[in-house]
Amino acid sequence: MSAALVPGLEDAWAARVRANREQTERLGEISAPDFYAPVSAVFVADPRRTGEPALDVLLAIAHEDETWIDIGAGAGRYALPLALRVKRVIAVEPSAGMRRALRTGMHEHGIDNVYLVGATWPEALRELGEEPVADTALIAHVGYDIEQIGPFLDAMERAARHRCVAILTDRSPASVADPFWPLVHGEPRAALPALPELVELVRARGRQTEILRVDRSPRTFESVDALTTFLQRQLFLAEGGEKAIHFRAILPDHIALRDGAWTLAEPPAGSLGVVSWTVPGA
User: Fold this and answer.
1) How many other CB atoms are there within 10 angstroms of residue 70's CB atom?
2) Confidence band (pLDDT; 50, 70, 90) for 254?
3) Helix (H, G, I), strand (E, B), or coil: what is residue 216?
4) Domain coverage including residue 23
5) Rounded distance, CA 88 to CA 180, Å?
6) Does residue 219 have a pLDDT over 90?
7) What is residue 166's DSSP assignment?
8) Is it the case that residue 39 has pLDDT exceeding 60?
């Protein structure tokens, strides 16, 4: 694919991110500097869990003498399992709420080889010293809402000695709430770019990509309240407001209890992709 396509692809990516953000600003009722803090517990996972296909792929390619950098590490869903496998993990996470959850996971599981950086990307790279800073750079469900995706990927590649890995879905994880946007806000959700657009862009940048498709398990919640809180957050609804009251009234018709956990009655379709590519000069 020709590099001449890159500017157009980056512009199209940025336009979708802006449309999504502008819709949120126009219709959303909440705004918080640390958006995920109230729901950070949803993203906590046992670092010794098994049977998760995307994690199995990462662990299969990770080596004990490597350093990985997890950009947008969240509560450590992948950073902590990787830390049990590799020499060191650099976890970049701007959300204070997510960093607290990650630190709690480190303490509870006796993991001490994670270096936590509380900054956004690519600004965080300046704090890490001489480049490259890791063998592998990872983004997992990160990038969907990054308007300047070109500089983001540039810095990701500079951070890695050998390869970059991205885990993304066909549609952004936030799209789980998309069916409720017309019901609550009166219009469809402006879709963010996701896996297909990232692959197209990386290939246009001249990189040879390897893609492994794995099962995408529906997100589940231990209670109706937890599911409600998550979806209401993705809809940007103020607690107790008219739209929130309407949303809670219609929600029971759209959820189901499966295997002891709550989820949407019609989970989002699509798959999960693990994309990897060798950095230039490696």
Assistant:
1) 30
2) very high
3) coil
4) 3-218+268-278
5) 41
6) no
7) E
8) no
40 pLDDT more than 80: no
Contacts of 130 (CB under 8 A, 6+ apart): none
Tokens 């002891």, residue located: 260
| Distance from C-alpha of 206 to C-alpha of 218, rounded to nearest angstrom | 34
Mean pLDDT of 232-240: 93
Instruction: Please indicate, yes or no, if residue 111 is contained in any of the structural domains.
Output: yes
- Neighbouring-strand partners of residue 90: 69, 115
Residue 45 covered by a domain: yes
State the sign of the Cα–Cα–Cα–Cα dihedral 197, 126, 118, 54.
positive
* CATH number of 11's domain: 3.40.50.150
Q: How many domains in the chain?
A: 1
Whole-angstrom CA distances from 22 to 8, 27, 192, 203 are 21, 9, 12, 29
Cα first-last separation, the chain: 21
* Cβ-contact 23, 189 below 8 angstroms: yes
Decide: helix, strand or coil at residue 63: coil
The better pLDDT of the pair 141, 2 is held by 141
Nearest to 198 by CA among 7, 11, 13: 13
**Nearest CA-CA partner of 118 in 159, 182, 74:** 74
Query: Using one digit for the tens of pLDDT, what is the confidence trace for 49-106?
Result: 998 999 999 999 999 999 999 999 999 999 999 999 999 999 999 999 999 999 999 9
C-alpha 151/C-alpha 24 separation (Å) is: 24
